[in-house]
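Annual report, structural modelling task.

Input specification for the fe (ii) ion complex:
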Amino acid sequence: MSVGSMQDLFIEELRDLYSAENQITKALPKMAKAATSDNLRQAFEGHLEETNVHVERLEQIFEILGKSSRGKACEGMKGLLTEGAEFIKEIEKGDVLDAGLISAAQRVEHYEMAGYGSVRAYAELLGNSKVVDLLQATLDEEKAADQKLTKISHTVNQQAQRAA
Ligand SMILES: [Fe+2]
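The model returned the following structure:
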């Protein structure tokens, strides 16, 4: 599509997030399987459930806006998830891989937070408060997921350091 207005940019970035979230739903089960720490595995499993809701919220938004969710592949997320998958391939299962998985997952969260922060601001500008609320709810969950990973990393990184 050609982007000529803030409304167009808004839809384009929502489609990008929709692609990103769908990619994450496929990656998280693999990351959970690769994790050794119970806390980390549970965090990935919990965030998978949240991510399914993020997909649904975006579908709700496309419905409200009367637009199709399709038409964009998020290359940024594809790259981030490829890097996470490389850790799984290259690092033996254990504490060091867990530390790498946390790092990869936090990159994903920060990328999403940047994306949701932007579209939430656009929705505010365009005066769509229902959409603002839906985007804010997801943004809050991404932030909480990131903070949870930071907390888990304190233990995991120390264990990984001792294992070396
Ligand atoms: Fe998400």
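Residues 3 and 9 are 6 Å apart (CA to CA).
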